[in-house]
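User: Let's play a game. I give you a shape written as tokens, and you guess the letters that built it. Ready? Here's round one.
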């Protein structure tokens, strides 16, 4: 309960943390099932909070998807909540770019490459990144 009081967890994430604390696997599974039945543990609630948090920090859909997969969520479940083709990502990539580069259009190939690399690292798609630079040209 202390782990859940701090923040939402996925079932797999909570399982790993409890296993690290040397609880028996059978007890962990029983506890997780009971918490899920009582509504205290929810993968859907976890994924919504996690996506919201990472979007607000300027991360893109590719990176968020990879982080969620590391936390034990299935790709189908992630895709249902993430919607990588949504136009809101074009707004988010522009916000991340403007915050980092103060809206300054790159004047040479090196600066453009640097800006694109930053946005790739943040997890935005090629199409989303190109949208920024095509609208700036």
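Assistant: Ready! My guess for every position:
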């Amino acid at each position: 309960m202390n782990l859940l009081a701090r923040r939402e967890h996925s079932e797999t994430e909570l399982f790993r943390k409890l296993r690290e604390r040397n609880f028996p696997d059978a007890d962990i599974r029983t506890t997780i099932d009971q918490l899920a039945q009582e509504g205290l543990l929810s993968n859907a609630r976890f994924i919504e909070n996690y996506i919201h948090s990472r979007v607000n920090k300027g991360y893109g859909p590719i990176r968020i998807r990879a982080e969620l997969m590391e936390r034990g969520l299935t790709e189908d479940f992630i895709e249902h909540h993430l919607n990588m083709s949504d136009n809101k990502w074009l707004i988010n990539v522009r916000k991340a770019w403007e915050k980092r580069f103060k809206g300054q259009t790159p004047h040479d190939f090196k600066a453009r490459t640097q800006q694109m690399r930053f946005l790739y690292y943040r997890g935005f798609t090629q199409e989303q990144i190109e949208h920024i630079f095509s609208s700036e040209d």
